[in-house]
Design brief:
The complex is a heterotrimer. By secondary structure, chain B is mainly α. Helix content of chain B is 74%, strand content 1%. In chain C, helix 14 packs antiparallel against helix 16 (370-383). Classes of the chains: A mainly alpha, B mainly alpha, C mainly alpha.
């Protein structure tokens, strides 16, 4: 037990790889064996994160469960892991969604083993980003996660659909989506890479806690330019890379394609966790390393956040493809996260306790929204996948009045949609309220504009529900659509429980987040 | 002048060669027709015996003048003796099974006669001796070149060689006569005193030197006195061409070094410039024209011309010890390599019935061993390690750099590149191209294999374990400067 | 008297080659087995040398010295340090996998393996040489077997042209460097070719500045530096698979390594003076190489040009004359060597079955040869510097070296070089993804149905071996970093610390 506690993060990080290795050794044809083994093995990181949660002391400052080992000593990069309240919630989210996603993937029949192996590698990549306290390894895992996702979309993505690329050549939509996803993200990461190299070269270390001290206290000129200019360039390099991931409008255009064409479980993870990597990057790196620049550009960031909220909602409303609707809703919801972060960034250096409290609240909301959106987005994508498997269409116009045919599914869909909409009593409300409350004194105009987006959120959610469940029954589906089955219930139920629980009694998670944010906030 | 035994040491090999010649003469008469090729064995073994016989009689560090100053016995001459004997022995073995050649006793006799001349050339200390020995070398070679009286090519070769040789000999003799006329002596070591003391004026010395150079340039086929070489090499029986291109050239260089460094060191700057120019012209022309050749013997002829150019670089650097050493080393390496090349051409040319390069297509499939030997020889000619040619070239270029003539080394280096191109092209034909005769093996006699094996081994040994040979060459070089 | 490990490593291949020549030509199986045994032996020895090197002690180890020509100061002098130990291992790896890949050569395998092993001896000799003459000796030995290997067993369409071009280019480069080296020998006045002694020779700054370009470029030609890279793509494409593996995987490293050993280490002042503009050339290599690679339609030409690009990174790392930059260059030599060996092996496997290398005509190969597809994906990820693989471990410090480079007389810093070079990463990623997608995924053209079968177990072993190395180093950089670091320190002390 001691061993586990001492190496908890390393275990959480690498048990997925172990699981992947075990899977590789299994015979390829035994699909069921592979599926169930994967599902069972995916519980290990989850159990370990729960252990982590219970052994985490929210009141202790700094990072806990930290470990340090030699990795690339020649350039001062080491294997340094540790969690604080923010990363803890993200770890929990990741390890929670993975088993659910794997369970949701039981309907995949093509090359199940490879699929599951890629999934575990993806989980490792995401966990790595959240627990790494070394900038270089952070980047390593950041980039590494791209590869499994690329293959998941490319190989197991939606079968139908084509996109035309230049000169009349037509390729499958999933191929287009995967390539766009990969190239977009990598191009964004290029600036990040250069900035990280530069930081490491100048500071002589890649250790994030150390960098918080050294990098921010740098002065004078660098490379023939005033340090302020260099930092501003590096800030944008970081910011753009993360902004693409979140995604912040206008860098979001990869998202609708990637989310729509990905396989169901892929979308669950993509929306549920991968987007949070970007937001986490802002919280962990951009704000603490570039407080001055973040404050200076916070207004721009806030503006873009509002654009995401409004346009994301409008775009959602205009969709006919159910999955694309949900995809754009991610843009909309993540906009709130960015709004909260921007508001907090703007208050750097403020001494007025009221302002500081607002910033605190905004950040709380942002982090909670990250968690919540993870749950609700995963849930929504899953439910879209459920209906797609039965009807083989995602076009909202093809549905109609399905509620009497599949009442249980209908109920669940409404429930999850309400959480996504932000109905009080469910988790979405808590986080969105906190963001709005926190951002209002700081970015009043933006927050007011965000309300428009909130309005349209309701519009698109209700539109989605209406077109699928309500209205005249589409005779075509009678007898052709089956109810949600037990496996699928197992997937969605934990998510629903959490959505309700957090909506009704959020203290258990907000407490952890709040204390962590306060400490980060002190840094800012 | 009393005769004491030590006087005979400097001429010992010549005496023994003479004895060998007489033996062969007798055997030629006594042996029946079919067994005449054994004369080759006799010649070769005899020469090896002679090499062993003179081993105990190594010269001292300082040179000795004997026979009234006519013979200069030093390490340089000793080294060249060994070289010539080796070359002749190998030639005898290579030529043994060449029809119409190896079974004629006269071939061996002429070979021995020429070798005797070479011995004297290497140890001449006197103008008359020089001239006599040059002629002794040349006349048998004229005959050997035209040995195949029924072949137009051979006859033309012999005749051409004779005419050009005689003409340049005359020029050489004129140069010698000028020297004698103004210095009053034929002894090389006295002539140099004459030049130093002013009896022979410098412009005159320069003139006679140029005339001598003309004559010797012919011998070593340096541009612009090279034009006999391709025709003669092509027309002459191939083993003879091999001997011509190696031993005879080496003898020519031996004389060249002797004359330049014993008689004309005072004109060192002048002849260095002249020789450098000749070297550049020789290397470049030899290599460039070789590019266009279709006949392998002509290609080897032009390649030999180019190699003379490389050796001249060493002569230009000859005032440094490394320069002199490099000349000797190069001659040794070059002799082995070129003899191997010509030997292979002679054996295969006989089987294929043609010396055109297209006949060599697919040789590697017909006889992998022969192709491999050809690869070794040609790569050594190109100057590739681990073969002798590489070391020899490196020493020559190093010597040039060492005396500050970097440009000359660069020109030499660039020429090596051209050379590499055509040597590799031939090897490409051998290894890559196919012909209809792919499956017909190439019959080779035991004596040929022995000779070729010794040569190939020598090329490799001299290319890898070069320390002892270098030291030997150093001793020879040093003996020039005492 | 310690076991002469390095001499064994250097001479075993040649001895094996000569012995193989004695086997009758028809006994092809015996020939192949003998070759494999020799390759395995060389690999084992090089692994031993790699892991037995004591990083803490540093310096040159396993040193052997024998007089060769004392009169001129030439000796047979070998030793390994942190820079050449990975390269020795690389050669062993490529030799071993090359033999595995060449199992199918049916036309005179005896001569093929014999020439390949002579090439290996030359390469080993250069890497471990500590005597300048000896370095040249073995360098030239490595040149002519390439000619024969490419012209005889290569791709019929261009083999003669490519072989001759390659040989002449390399030969020109080496002889120019030779003249420079001879100048060094005579100017030093030390009368020795011992490189360690020449390092202390104290050549005048003027001398160094004049001689450095000749020596550096003479060798860098083999490293594929722009504008003398032209021989490389044609040579790569024309050569048979194992020879391409050797060529790109090892031979090009020979050039870069010799440029380091003879150019940078013996003429540090010259290096410092010329590197600022040389780095421009390396930048052209990196970016231009990637561009050209991305527009090729022949699979092998893509890989060939990508080698030009990646070797540009090696040269760039050296050109920064900084600690990290050289570290990265040293690791990149190893990483790229393994990666490109894998690439060419894969290309060969595809071509053997499909008889075409035109990318538009290929497709869906993962269905036929899944292991090959996965291996190529791993190689592709290494190529674009994806973290988690050896390519990232190598490229990252090179960029750091650019950031850390000291000001020179030409530029104050190399930040702009870093930014431009980073573009190549994206270009590389784009064409790698495109090729993987086109060649291995998608629908296979109809004419391939039933004609393509999977590769044999030997090929798979080779691919898995190569992939494992790249992943291992990507995950555990400490397998190579301390070693190369100690080698770099050795170089830096000659540059006066950097």
């Amino acid at each position: 037990m001691d061993f586990i506690l001492n190496n908890l993060l390393t275990l959480i990080l690498f048990t997925p790889v172990l699981a992947a290795v075990i899977l590789i050794l299994l015979p390829r044809e035994q699909d069921n064996l592979v599926r169930w083994t994967a599902f069972v093995l995916s519980f290990i990181p989850l159990i370990l994160s729960v252990v982590l949660w219970f052994n985490f002391d929210p009141n202790a400052p700094g990072f806990q469960f930290s470990q340090k080992a030699v990795w690339y000593s020649a350039i001062n990069s080491s294997y340094h892991v540790g969690v604080d309240g923010i990363s803890l919630t993200m770890v929990l989210l990741t390890t929670l969604l993975t088993p659910l996603a794997i369970l949701a993937s039981f309907s995949i029949t093509d090359r199940v083993k490879t699929y599951m192996v890629l999934f575990f590698l993806l989980e490792m990549g995401m966990l790595g980003v959240f627990v790494m306290l070394d900038l270089l390894l952070f980047f390593v895992f950041w980039e590494f996660g791209l590869v499994p996702m690329y293959f998941l979309i490319n190989q197991w993505g939606s079968e139908k659909g084509e996109r035309e690329v230049w000169r009349g050549r037509v390729i499958p939509a999933r191929v287009y989506a995967s390539i766009k996803f990969m190239i977009y993200t990598m191009a964004g990461s290029l600036g990040l890479l250069l900035a990280i190299q530069m930081i490491g070269a100048v500071s002589g270390t890649f250790d994030i806690p150390e960098l918080f001290q050294r990098w921010t206290s740098l002065d004078g000129t660098l490379f023939g330019l005033p340090i302020g200019v260099v930092k501003a360039i590096a800030f944008w390099a970081f910011a753009i890379a993360f902004a693409i991931k979140v995604p912040v409008w206008p860098f979001h255009t990869w998202l609708p394609d990637a989310h729509t064409e990905a396989p169901t479980a892929g979308s669950m993870i993509l929306a549920g966790v991968l987007l949070k990597l970007g937001a986490y990057g802002f919280l962990r790196l951009v704000l603490p390393l570039y407080p001055v620049e973040a404050k200076y550009y916070a207004g721009a960031l806030g503006f873009l956040a509002v654009m995401a909220i409004i346009f994301g909602a409008l775009a959602s409303y205009g969709q006919d493809d159910f999955k694309r609707l949900v995809a754009y809703s991610s843009v909309n919801h993540m906009g709130f996260v960015v709004l909260g972060i921007a508001a907090a960034a703007f208050t750097y250096g403020a001494t007025d306790p009221a302002v500081k409290q607002s910033a605190n609240i905004a950040l709380n909301g942002a982090v909670l929204q990250m968690f919540n959106h993870g749950l609700s987005a995963a849930g929504m994508f899953f439910l879209v996948g459920v209906i797609y498997e039965r009807t083989h269409t995602r076009n909202l116009n093809d549905f109609g009045g399905l509620f009497p045919l599949i009442p249980v599914y209908g109920g669940i869909l409404i429930f999850t949609s309400m959480a996504s909409l932000g109905l009080p009593g469910l988790n979405g409300f808590i986080s969105e309220f906190l963001v709005v409350r926190g951002a209002w004194p700081i970015f009043t105009l933006y927050t007011a504009l965000a309300m428009i987006g909130l309005f349209f959120t309701g519009a698109y959610i209700l539109k989605g529900i209406k077109q699928v469940l309500h209205g005249p029954l589409n005779e075509h589906w009678v007898g052709h659509v089956s109810e949600i089955n037990r496996r699928e219930l197992f997937v969605i139920t934990p998510l629903m429980v959490l959505m309700l629980w957090i909506g009704v009694w959020p203290a258990w998670i907000l407490d952890v987040i709040n204390k962590a944010v306060a400490m980060v906030f002190n840094l800012i | 002048m009393s005769l004491n035994p030590s006087m005979f040491i400097p001429v010992l090999p010549q005496i023994l060669l003479l004895a060998l010649g007489i033996v062969i003469l007798f055997l030629d008469v006594l042996l029946p027709r079919e067994q005449h090729r054994y004369l080759g064995w006799v010649a070769a073994v005899g020469m090896v015996v002679i090499m062993l016989a003179i081993l105990p009689f190594m010269p001292q560090e300082q040179f000795q003048l004997t026979w009234g100053g006519m013979v200069r016995f030093d390490w340089m001459s000793y080294t060249f003796w060994m070289l010539f004997l080796f070359g002749a022995a190998v030639t005898a073995l290579l030529a043994m099974d060449y029809p119409e050649l190896g079974e004629r006793g006269s071939f061996y006799l002429l070979l021995i006669a020429s070798t005797i001349g070479m011995m004297f050339m290497a140890s001449a200390g006197d103008l008359v001796m020089l001239y006599l020995s040059i002629e002794t070398v040349s006349i048998p070679l004229y005959i050997l070149a035209g040995f195949f009286v029924r072949s137009d090519e051979s006859t033309e070769a012999g005749f051409k060689y004779l005419l050009f040789g005689a003409m340049t000999s005359a020029i050489l003799l004129y140069g010698f006569s000028l020297l004698y006329g103004f210095s009053g002596t034929t002894d090389l070591h006295q002539i140099v005193l004459g030049i130093v003391q002013g009896k022979v004026s410098l412009p005159l010395a320069f003139t006679s030197m140029m005339l001598v150079l003309v004559g010797l340039s012919f011998k070593v086929s340096v541009v612009p006195f090279h034009f006999w070489a391709p025709d003669v090499y092509q027309g002459a029986p191939t083993p003879v061409a091999g001997f011509l291109s190696t031993a005879s050239k080496a003898a020519g260089f031996a004389v060249l070094i002797r004359i330049l460094f014993i008689v004309f060191p005072i004109l060192g700057n002048q002849w260095a410039i002249v020789l450098a120019a000749l070297s550049v012209a020789t290397m470049t022309l030899g290599n460039l024209v070789a590019l266009a050749q279709r006949n392998i013997k002509r290609l080897l002829a032009y390649s030999s011309i180019a190699h003379a150019g490389y050796i001249l670089i060493g002569v230009v650097s000859g005032f440094s010890e490394l320069g002199m050493v490099s000349v000797v080393y190069y001659l040794v390496a070059y002799l082995m390599t070129n003899l191997a090349a010509f030997g292979i051409v002679s054996a295969f040319g006989r089987v294929a019935g043609s010396d055109d390069m297209t006949a060599y297509y697919g040789l590697s499939r017909r006889s992998p061993g022969l192709a491999l030997a050809m690869l070794v020889a040609f790569l050594s000619l190109a100057g590739m390690p681990p073969f002798a040619g590489f070391i020899a070239k490196v020493f020559i270029f190093a010597a040039a750099v060492g005396v500050g003539q970097i440009w000359l080394a660069v020109v030499g280096v660039l020429n090596s590149i051209i050379g590499l191109y055509y040597y590799l092209t031939v090897m490409k034909y051998v290894y890559l191209y196919r012909s209809e005769n792919d499956d017909q093996p190439v019959p080779l006699s035991g004596s040929f294999k022995l000779a070729l094996g010794v040569l190939v081994a020598g090329i490799v040994v001299i290319g890898v374990l070069f320390s002892p040979w270098f030291n030997w060459a150093s001793v020879a070089a040093r003996s020039m400067f005492f | 008297m310690q076991f002469p490990l390095l001499s064994f490593i250097v001479f075993t291949p040649m001895l094996a080659g000569l012995l193989i020549l004695l086997i009758p030509g028809e006994r092809k199986t015996e020939i192949r087995v003998a070759a494999l045994a020799a390759g395995a032996f060389a690999l084992a020895l090089s692994l031993w040398a790699y892991f037995a090197y004591d990083v803490a002690a540093g310096g040159y180890q396993f040193v052997e010295r024998y007089n060769w020509l004392p009169a001129l100061g030439i000796s047979y002098y070998v030793g390994i340090d942190g820079m050449n130990a990975p390269l020795v291992l690389l050669t062993g790896v490529v030799m071993f996998t090359g033999v595995l890949i060449s199992w199918g050569i049916d036309d005179r395998p005896r001569e093929f393996f014999a020439f390949l092993f002579i090439l290996a001896t030359g390469v080993f000799g250069v890497f471990v040489a500590l005597d300048l003459f000896m370095l040249f000796f073995f360098y030239e030995i490595a040149v002519f077997p390439m000619y024969l290997l490419i012209s005889i067993w290569g791709w019929k369409v261009t083999r003669e042209y490519a072989a001759m071009k390659l040989t002449l280019y390399l030969f020109i480069g080496s002889v120019i460097a030779l003249v420079g080296a001879l100048a060094m020998y005579f100017t030093s006045g030390l009368g020795t070719f011992d490189m360690l002694a020449l390092e202390q020779a104290g050549f005048s700054t003027a001398f160094q500045r004049v001689v450095f370009p000749f020596v550096f470029f003479g060798f860098a030609v083999l490293g594929g530096i722009f504008p003398f890279h032209n021989w490389s793509p044609d040579g790569h494409v024309a050569a048979p698979t194992a020879v391409s593996m050797f060529h790109a995987g090892v031979l090009m490293k020979l050039g870069a390594f010799a440029a380091l050993r003879v150019g940078i280490m013996l003429l540090p002042e010259g290096a410092r003076f010329h590197m600022p503009w040389i780095i421009l050339l390396t930048l052209v290599n990196v970016v231009y190489g990637a561009f050209i690679a991305s527009v090729q339609t022949d699979f092998k030409y893509v890989i060939g040009f990508s080698s030009v690009s990646h070797m540009g990174l090696v040269a760039m790392g050296f050109a920064t004359l900084s600690r990290e930059g050289m570290l990265g260059a040293g690791i990149q030599m190893f990483s790229h060597g393994v990666m490109t060996a894998l690439f060419f092996a894969v290309v060969g496997m595809v071509y053997d079955q499909a008889h075409t290398r035109e990318i538009p005509q290929l497709g869906g190969f993962r269905k036929f040869m899944p292991v090959v597809a996965v291996a190529f994906i791993v190689g592709g990820l290494v190529s674009m510097g994806m973290p988690g693989f050896s390519g990232f471990v190598a490229e990252f410090p090179i960029f750091m070296g650019l950031w850390n480079a000291k000001p020179s007389w030409l530029w104050a810093n190399y930040t702009w070089v870093a930014i431009i070079a980073a573009i190549s990463i994206v270009i590389t990623a784009s064409y790698i993804i495109r090729i993987i997608g086109k060649v291995f995924f998608g629908q296979p053209p109809a004419e391939f149905d039933g004609h393509i079968h999977d590769v044999n177990v030997l090929d798979k072993v080779a691919l898995v071996f190569l992939s494992t190395i790249m992943i291992a180093i990507g995950v555990f950089p400490r397998l190579i970093v301390p070693l190369v670091q100690s080698g770099v320190d050795n170089v830096l002390r000659l540059l006066g610390g950097a």
